[in-house]
């Protein structure tokens, strides 16, 4: 039989063996692509995360640079009272009684003997207390926000909300744990803008309706302030999607700069919650502004913490429904706001702004990737500080930066009669921290 010629013999292929064919050569790339797509899907941020538009940040405002104290004055001035108090978010002073109440990261409200620096657990509050204020009209009533702290677990019956504490009896009562459902235009989507309502005119939910499970659960209550007559409590909700929490839970908002932040109003006389503002970025610190001689607050200052800015929201008067950007491109995240006896405003400057975060916010196309990367790839500097503004929050009076060697993550600077109490949002910290009034503030020209 005639043998087939060699020219007609088929070459070994990918099925017959021999040299690798084109399909086999593609397998590594296909595997890598499949693994990449699986990781991309698995590492997706929570559904409510919305990437904001490009946001350009310049150098720190020149006015602020001019009042920045040289060196590290906080490191020299800090007095540390060594006691078991863990890291904390807020300090509420009753200096007439020699006491302070502190919302600590262990889920307890602590009581401090401020003369001796002694600390003791006072009330086991729901979840973790965050921002807190005393009632201006009832000396034993304290209002506080309660929210989840990232990485911690709590009993299932403890819920996020605005609460009232009777300091005499230690009884805790929820005031607002649900808020109104809002139109889509208020929920931070791409087409959403900012919106401010005059007090009491926004979408509203009464306590009776909330008992019927109308509205939605409050996801994150962060900070608050109380009107001069004690009837209205303004409180912030930085964002409201699944997993909302303090600390590490803010990572996605810090990267995305979404417009998820809201400010709410609880009206005690009407037992209702209404919307004051929506479409802002990580609404955090809250401070009311009441003109001299007026009986009703005209505006509210908020910090947009992850956006490095401070904004005024007008809630009454001729400008009701308007806002005013006061500070932007700050060198660190502004957190809590407090007023000293002269009306000056103290701002906790939680964490510094890095060159990387400035670049990311100017180039939002990179954010889908950044939101999926492990958090350890974003190291956080230990630097922290305080900022002092005048009574109208329009002029910087003093700014100090600390290298973090003595205190980290200053969430708020609370002015007392003769010293400033610093809150350290650092779970590894223990003890109480204070500083005296810095000379340029204490003896300089006072606002007003």
Brief summary of the model shown:
The protein is built from 8 helices and 28 strands.
Structure notes:
With 448 residues, the protein is mostly beta strands. The protein has one domain: 6 Propeller (Neuraminidase), CATH 2.120.10.30. Helix content is 13%, strand content 37%. It has helices at residues 22-42, 62-66, 73-77, 207-211, 251-256, 355-362, 367-370, 439-442; strands spanning 79-86, 88-94, 99-104, 108-113, 118-124, 128-134, 141-147, 161-166, 171-176, 178-179, 195-196, 204-206, 216-217, 224-226, 232-237, 261-267, 272-280, 283-289, 299-304, 309-314, 323-327, 332-339, 345-352, 384-389, 396-402, 410-415, 419-424, 430-436. The strands form seven sheets. Strands 11, 12, 14, 15, 16 and 17 form a six-stranded antiparallel β-sheet that branches. β27 and β28 form a beta hairpin. The protein is globular.
CATH class designation: Mainly Beta
Fraction of residues in helices? 10-25%
Overall outline: globular
Q: What summary fits the major beta sheet? A: 6 strands, antiparallel
- Fourth-tier CATH superfamily name: TolB, C-terminal domain
The CATH architecture would be 6 Propeller
CATH fold node name: Neuraminidase
Number of strands: 28
Taken as a percent bin, the fraction of beta residues is 35-45%
Low-pLDDT windows of residues: 1-5, 12-18, 443-448
Rg to the nearest angstrom? 26 Å
Name the structural class.
Answer: mainly beta
Give the termini separation: 115 Å
Mean pLDDT: 91
Please count the helical segments: 8
Number of structural units classed as domains: 1
